[in-house]
Amino acid sequence: MNQKVSGYDANRVIMTQKCAIALNEVWKELDSKGFNIVIYDAFRPTRAVQNFVRWAEDKNANQTNKASYFPYVDHDKVFDEGYIANRSGHSRGSTIDLSIIELGKSLQNVVRKNRKLSDGREIFFLDDNTLDMGSSFDLFDKASNTLSNLVPDTAHQNRLFLKDLMEKNGFVNYELEWWHFTLKDEPFPDTYFDFQIN
């Protein structure tokens, strides 16, 4: 969107206690294997979701980041493609977007690299020093589908590694996005919260 999203005033992760306890079990297993967790997004206020909706519906919306995040999807089609919803599971507090990083490494400023997919298309891979999952977090493309065959086998294996660990600890993956998981028995399945993160 190339703008600050409504509802976020601090770089803080919020989630339900039940989600945090389950995620801690994932972290313990990752730690024993030489990895750590990187969380991109967790609780998302409904006002932030509404901000996304307004952007997607605005024919004159800023599309400065189209090449990096939605190169082959028109911004007004992100609903039809399943990348943005009018109501987000993130607003229930038990959905998280995450990846894995090797112990001893830290996040870096994103380095944009050209990457060719197996169907011949090119995308930008936004390397932040996390484990290579074949496509970047928040890339709206079929290459981001968890079981996509458009990415190299090593990236596919990395996705399965993350997915298996998360599922073992009670999470369900959203098949269109390798990074997106919801606690299976979330405590607030019908409640969408809206408060400022500060």
Automatic annotation (TrEMBL):
InterPro entries in UniProt: A_A_dipeptidase, Zn_M74/Hedgehog-like
Q: Membrane spanning segments where?
A: none
Per UniProt, the keywords (alphabetical) are: Cell wall biogenesis/degradation, Dipeptidase, Hydrolase, Metal-binding, Metalloprotease, Protease, Zinc
* MF GO annotations: dipeptidase activity; metal ion binding; metallopeptidase activity
What GO biological process, any one, is recorded here?
cell wall organization
Query: What's the name of the protein?
Result: D-alanyl-D-alanine dipeptidase
List the source organism. Answer: Brachionus plicatilis (Marine rotifer)
